[in-house]
């Protein structure tokens, strides 16, 4: 049985009991009032008889009393018999019957010189009085039943409305739980009020949000791993295809370079797995191992890794570095992550026959690393959310699903840059390509300076 039905039955029962009790109390009160009125009527009749008997004694007119009694018996059908006794003589009016209630009065003449008295005994029919009471009770019961039906009708309607109101949040919570159990992880309960049921609904929404976030995190983890491993795997595949070409002859140095690049790709995939797992395991920041890193050499390594992918897409990768190498105090793994994500992101959003320019510049106390592409460009509204976790920019045709990826690359990049107290931003115009710039301090002494410039 549904909870709404249970509440409605319970409330209807309570209302019915309350209405029944009120009607019973009203009927009892009215019956007492009728009995009181009947007794008052009999007392009034006997009072009138006593007054008429006194008048007849004062006027010494016995016929007046008898005439009044006959009139009273005609006007009051409940009087079946009247017995008048005066000076030892008794006169009977009517017929004596069973089930009569007798009332008597005695009147005395005020003239004490010749004392005289008369006694009148009246018999009232119990059957007639019961019939009158029954008629009165029937009318009363009709009124009471009408009131009861109206009260029960209003009570039933009220209980129906109240039961719906009380059962609605419970039913919604049950429906949401059923949807959630069948796999709809976005099922929520609308919260109204601040009672216990609302608190339960809030707890359900919080629980559902946590579960949904956990499930989505696992899906995003798989998507991230797929995205982050696809480019190194594509590079490995390209080099393997080159090595399988029998007509090409490779020098020892060329073969060594190919295998070194493939080894770097495998190492990058291992790093991707460990970084992705660390990112989704906790919300804590990745551990730092700062050392002097040659940013120019690191950029060359990454370009060698992605050059086969770029060539396969007919994209020209260009590197511009100063004549002397630039070094900075940084975590090499995170720096590699920054460069890889920016270059791979540029390759994804640059059409065929485009170009990508990677530039390393010396900025006195800082090193600026930039990646400029001739891709689709980014709208102003997208630039504000670009480094948000899971956010992805539309492709040229306005659809987000055209370009693979999870939307985590730039979020991870920003985290790595901020761990070095650096800055990252984008300069872009729709249809004219984009340039991502990273500004990093060369040593720990300049971290605070770089942070304050932002």
Describe the structure.
It contains ten helices and eleven strands. The protein has 454 residues and is α+β, with helices and mostly antiparallel strands. The protein has helices spanning 3-59, 62-75, 126-181, 196-243, 252-281, 295-312, 332-348, 380-385, 409-419, 447-453; strands at 79-86, 89-94, 100-108, 117-125, 290-294, 316-320, 327-331, 355-363, 366-373, 423-428, 434-441. Strand 3 and strand 4 form a beta hairpin. The two termini are 64 Å apart.
Key features of this structure:
single chain; 454 residues; alpha+beta; Ribosomal protein S3 C-terminal domain; Heat Shock Protein 90; 5-stranded mixed β-sheet; 4-stranded antiparallel β-sheet; 10 helices; 58% helix; rod-shaped; disordered C terminus
A few lines on this structure:
The chain has helices at residues 3-59, 62-75, 126-181, 196-243, 252-281, 295-312, 332-348, 380-385, 409-419, 447-453; strands spanning 79-86, 89-94, 100-108, 117-125, 290-294, 316-320, 327-331, 355-363, 366-373, 423-428, 434-441.
Set out the fold topology.
Elements: H1 3-59, H2 62-75, E1 79-86, E2 89-94, E3 100-108, E4 117-125, H3 126-181, H4 196-243, H5 252-281, E5 290-294, H6 295-312, E6 316-320, E7 327-331, H7 332-348, E8 355-363, E9 366-373, H8 380-385, H9 409-419, E10 423-428, E11 434-441, H10 447-453
Parallel strand pairs: 6-8
Antiparallel strand pairs: 1-2, 1-4, 3-4, 5-7, 8-9, 9-11, 10-11
Helix pairs in contact: 1-2, 1-3, 3-4, 4-5, 4-6, 6-7, 7-9
């Amino acid at each position: 049985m549904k909870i709404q039905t249970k509440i409605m039955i319970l409330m209807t029962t309570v209302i019915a009991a309350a209405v029944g009790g009120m009607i019973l109390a009203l009927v009892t009160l009215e019956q007492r009032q009728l009995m009181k009125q009947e007794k008052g009527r009999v007392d009034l009749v006997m009072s009138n008889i006593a007054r008429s008997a006194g008048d007849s004694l004062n006027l010494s007119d016995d016929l007046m009393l008898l005439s009044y009694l006959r009139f009273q018996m005609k006007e009051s059908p409940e009087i079946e018999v009247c017995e008048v006794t005066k000076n030892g003589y008794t006169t009977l009016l009517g017929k004596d019957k069973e089930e009569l209630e007798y009332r008597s009065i005695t009147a005395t003449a005020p003239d004490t010189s010749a004392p005289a008295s008369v006694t009148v005994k009246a018999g009232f029919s119990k059957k007639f009085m019961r019939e009158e009471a029954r008629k009165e009770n029937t009318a009363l019961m009709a009124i009471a039943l009408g009131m009861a039906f109206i009260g029960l009708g209003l009570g039933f309607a009220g209980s129906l409305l109240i039961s719906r109101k009380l059962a609605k949040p419970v039913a919604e919570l049950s429906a949401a739980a059923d949807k959630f159990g069948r796999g709809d992880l976005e099922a929520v309960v609308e919260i109204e009020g601040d009672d216990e049921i609302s608190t339960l609904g809030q707890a359900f929404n919080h629980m559902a949000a946590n579960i949904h976030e956990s499930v989505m995190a696992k899906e995003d983890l798989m998507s991230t791993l797929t995205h982050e491993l696809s480019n190194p795997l594509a590079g490995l595949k390209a080099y393997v295809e080159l090595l399988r070409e029998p007509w090409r002859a490779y020098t020892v140095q060329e073969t060594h370079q190919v295998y070194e690049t493939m080894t770097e790709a495998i190492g990058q995939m291992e790093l991707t797995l460990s970084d992705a797992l660390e990112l989704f395991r906790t919300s804590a920041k990745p551990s730092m191992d700062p050392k002097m890193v040659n940013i120019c050499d690191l950029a060359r390594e990454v370009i060698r890794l992605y050059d086969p992918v770029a060539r396969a897409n007919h994209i020209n990768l260009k590197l511009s570095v100063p004549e002397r190498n630039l070094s900075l105090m940084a975590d090499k793994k995170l720096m590699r992550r920054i460069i890889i994500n920016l270059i791979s992101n540029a390759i994804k959003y640059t059409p065929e026959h485009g170009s990508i320019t990677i530039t390393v510049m010396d900025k006195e106390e800082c090193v600026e690393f930039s990646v400029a592409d001739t891709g689709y460009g980014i709208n102003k509204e997208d630039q504000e959310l670009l480094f948000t976790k899971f956010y992805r920019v539309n492709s040229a045709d306005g659809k987000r699903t055209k370009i693979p990826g999870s939307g985590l690359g730039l979020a991870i990049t920003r985290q790595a840059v901020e761990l070095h107290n650096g800055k990252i931003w984008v300069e872009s115009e729709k249809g004219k390509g984009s340039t991502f710039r990273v500004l990093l301090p060369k040593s720990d002494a300049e971290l605070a300076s770089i942070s304050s410039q932002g």
